[in-house]
Amino acid sequence: MNKLAVFVVSVLSVTGQAATTLFDFETDALPYRVRGQTKLDTVPDFATSGKMALRFTSLAWKRGMPEWPSFEFKTPLRNWSGYDRLVVDITNPSEEQFSFAMFVSDSKVPFRQGLHYSFALPSHGWKRFMVPLSSFPKTVNRADIAIVHFFTTRPTTDLALYLDNITLLKKGETLPLPGPEFERQLAPLKRAQLAAREAARAKRAAAIAQLQPSGKMFVGYATSMEKILPRDGPLDLKPARKFEVSLARNEKESFQVLVVPAKEALRKVSVSVSDLKSATGAVFPRTQIDCDVVGYVETKQRPPYGSECVGWWPDSILNFLGPVDIAAGDVQAFWIRVRAPKDQKPGLYRGTLTVSADGAWAQSFVLTVRVRSFTLPDRSPLPLAITFAPHDHPTDETRAEQTEWRKSAEYPLNAWRKQKQRWADFLADYYITYDSLYHHEQPDFEILSKLHQQNRLNWFNLGYWDYIGSDLEKWKSKNLPRFRDAYTTAKKLGLLDHAYLYGCDEVVSNYFPQVEQAAAILKAEFPGTLIMTTTYDQSYGQQSVIKSVDAFCPLTPKFDPTKAATARAAGKQVWWYICCGPRHPQANMFVEYPAIEGRLLMGAMTAKQRPDGFLYYQISIWNSRHPITTGPFTNWDPRSWTTYHGDGSWTCVGPDGVPVPTIRLENFRDGLEDFAYARILEDFTVPESLVKTMTEYSRDPAELYAWRNAIADAIERGGTNQNKNKPH
């Protein structure tokens, strides 16, 4: 065990209050432990209290290195029961926003099951983090806190962070701001931050100045797999000459039209299309093409997974908004969604796409739509277990105001209920069944029956189950009657083939015997129902006591195709899922991540790795006070779970509670449609140039289009039977 000059508990008088400092790195020695490429030392730099701070350094991560460089302390004060906040001051002199987080636990509960907090680090700056101790799990004894564990994840460059003033506060206590010496040391960082921001803006302005507008505006093109920042951030616009789309019957495919004012602001800008016609005179009606305004959401801080930009991001697709104004220097995107009906005659259709604005010459372009000769299914080609159960996720800072907001009929959590059936239809358009992994009430069988009649029903949950504790009879009386009612109704309605029972969410190995005990009872009581879990059994039931679970669901980085094949040979299914993890280089669907990642995950990556299904814990965590009613710069809060942006939130609420899709939701569906192509032509492989591994893949839309179009060409050449489109 190493020693480091840190500090003992001290009591600091602050404005008449007594704050309890755990660590301020001034004197004494305290045991600590480091893991990975980690070094700790005390330095006279960026001290927010006293003269010394703790410097945590780690080398840039390379393959073969430990993935989580970390360090931890034993706490000098064990009883935290009288405190409500933990203060941590952190200075990050780098432009890079590293992933950095903390676990706190007692002497008995493993630290990874304790309080978890992710620090949204500043760039070229410092931040005082107030960690709410109300976030402790109930299993942790706050009178016996034993360990504080800090860690980062695969730093992309050499990392150096400065920590100081780790302090416990009681209700009403505050801390003074750092003194003049700290401000003096911080000044160069502020200048660097300002210079970086100004350089980015200058680069963007220069890029816009290089455009060659026609009249008063420049019109550009982007695929549906790109996110074009409207103001800050890098800019690489491709001029529009013509627009081309290829899609199967019963498929949707999109692209983006980008409009930039030449010098002065533009007013009432819109995009429209004509009917399209083939050489034989067949018509592709313009009513099957949507021209919607892309909406922007504003992030206020860097998320735990890092971001190239804090500010306005494209996300919502404002299907209710008419012509919009565009300020000078802004880039406005329009989402063009083409829908090919099932009975659309295959062929090549041509028409016109026109961009108009008040006081400017309209610009027209050739729009070509190629309709393939095969048809995609009405429901997902991949089994899905996805939660749509709107709720908010207040932080300690917003809890009081959000409690008040809940009283309003227009709060998104209330407003959507006016449109429940519309939401169910909307979700089905994206292959998602109106369902919840966690519900303890009966499924909505009216909606499920309607989806079944439409042949759009995927999987749905009969109810959430947990492992059995000390009282078996209590567990049975709590769970079996409600499951039996749902099971009986599903069987009567002919829906049982689509039903599952989900439970034991991310349960650790300590409880595997109790998981098995519960699963065995459910399997006997409800024959034919899939018993599914995200329990952390990385052997998928092959090397654990869990034998009665039918479907195991690991996080995508924990999905092992070889182990999955062994489990399948034993009659098991192996799905996969994402949530607030994984992070880059793995694919995910945060607001700031490239849009193509969601499409790759559901399409090419699924085709290559072949999980048996996909699970996602929630698509409707909404923290906005009001629905979106204006735009394109909206008042929708992109914060979802804790300080993440978009995790657990792929949808927004529009006027009067109507559904509003996001770019991420569009790419989710497009990926499943790509997978449907691969299901038709099972022997068509995914090239390594597109997806080599789950961490090595292309983010170039051209690579994805090349793979997708090659499959489509092969299907049309062979006239392949399309029955393989049925969910497997």
Structure description:
The strands form eight sheets. Strands 2, 3, 5, 6, 8, 11 and 13 form a seven-stranded antiparallel sheet that branches. This protein has a six-stranded antiparallel sheet with strand order 1-4-7-12-9-10, with no helix packed on it. Strand 25 (347-358) and strand 26 (360-375) form a beta hairpin. Helix 9 (596-602) runs parallel beside helix 11 (663-680) and helix 11 (663-680) runs parallel beside helix 12. It has three domains: 2-183, Sandwich (Jelly Rolls), CATH 2.60.120.430; 211-375, Immunoglobulin-like, CATH 2.60.40; 384-725, TIM Barrel (Alpha-Beta Barrel), CATH 3.20.20. The protein is built from twelve helices and 36 strands. The protein is α+β, with helices and mostly antiparallel strands. It is globular, with a radius of gyration of 27 Å. Helices cover 21% and strands 29% of the residues.
Overview features:
728 residues, alpha+beta, Jelly Rolls, TIM Barrel, six-stranded antiparallel sheet, 36 strands, disordered N terminus
CATH architectural group of the largest domain: Alpha-Beta Barrel
- CATH topology (fold) name of the largest domain: TIM Barrel
Note the main sheet. Answer: 7 strands, antiparallel
Q: How many individual helices?
A: 12
What is the strand content?
25-35%
Number of domains: 3
- Described by its quaternary structure, the protein is single chain
Number of strands: 36
How would you classify the helix and strand content by structural class? alpha+beta
CATH class of the largest domain: Alpha Beta
Radius of gyration: 27 Å
Helix content: 10-25%
